[in-house]
Amino acid sequence: MSAKASYSLPEGIVGLKGPIQKPAPGTLPLRGDLAHVALAHRFLAAHYVIPLLRVVGDQDVTLKLNSRDDAENGAEIPAGSEVEVLDREGDWLWITCGPEGPSGYVRTSALKPDSDA
After folding, report:
1. pLDDT of 77-101, one tens digit each?
2. How far apart are CA 7 and CA 79, in angstroms?
3. Which superkingdom is the protein from (predicted)?
């Protein structure tokens, strides 16, 4: 997919000043181990990810707050929406609609294959 992100990547030295409030699960694309690269100036994470653009398949998907079928539901993403993939855990993908979220987990099959994007 040749689409470009609509946000800028951080430049220079990234640092944080003072305490921050942790966002609610399913909102910003931020976990303890990973964060969307566009959040680097606002949140500390062990690693920052430059996401891969993908497209939701032919059916709406409901994001899960954890990578399990019985996990709490998060936001619903309409079919055909462009999303950003941040991580893969087996058959689960951690995705977001952009650096301001929402974020959550979906099965790999919920997105169109790379060649169809």
Report:
1. 999 999 999 999 999 999 999 999 9
2. 23
3. Bacteria
